[in-house]
Amino acid sequence: xxxxILRQIQQVSSASFHREIFTADLQVIPEVLSLSNESTLVKxxxxxxxxxxxxxxxxxxxxxxxxxxxxxxSSLPVEVENILSVLRNKIIDSQKKSDDPxxxxxxxxHVIDLSKSGHIxxxxxxxxxxxxxxxxxxxxxxRTMILMPSNGLGDPILLPLAPRSLYxxxxxxxxxxxxEIIGPDTIKKWPNISEIQHLxxxxxxxxxxxxxxxxx
Length: 216
Known about the structure:
Elements: E1 3-8, E2 11-16, E3 21-22, E4 26-29, H1 35-49, E5 55-57, E6 63-70, H2 78-95, E7 110-123, E8 130-139, E9 143-149, E10 157-161, E11 166-170, H3 171-175, E12 177-181, E13 204-212
Antiparallel strand pairs: 1-2, 3-4, 4-11, 5-6, 6-7, 7-12, 7-13, 8-11, 8-13, 9-10, 9-12
């Protein structure tokens, strides 16, 4: 599938998976990595996670069928750290377009390997340890993220996250919206959204970046 419905704020519009989305607090930037760099990351993450089994559920029941690991800079191959550094800089550069840029120190990133049967349930990331920016780079396959006002009032925002795309959530989308990654067992929650009913699911790897709480 090469097209879907993206609901941005108050308007529904048809868009390619490679369309760039930019608002003050919500961004999706396509093709932030080359195919070669994506391959390097996928190969490395597959290797370091191969001894882990896909876990049934996260301790807080947010993630199902996943592997996860924090990425310590001191232990990363130079080639991998260089790619992650480029991604950090892209996040910083994207914030320069904002009237209120969020540029500060990053926490250590972590990698999530989600199996083709896995999903990430609706949640708001903990506000105890990280600041007002969350960013993620998608690798290997496309999955769809849904943002929903955490008070339950309002319409969902659908974000197709193509391989090598970067999403950035800030402020209101960080604190006032839940975000989830649809899986084959959770797509049934959205029977009225015809655009996602024919999605297929594959393994997805993502690298998650958060800024430091004191930098918000």
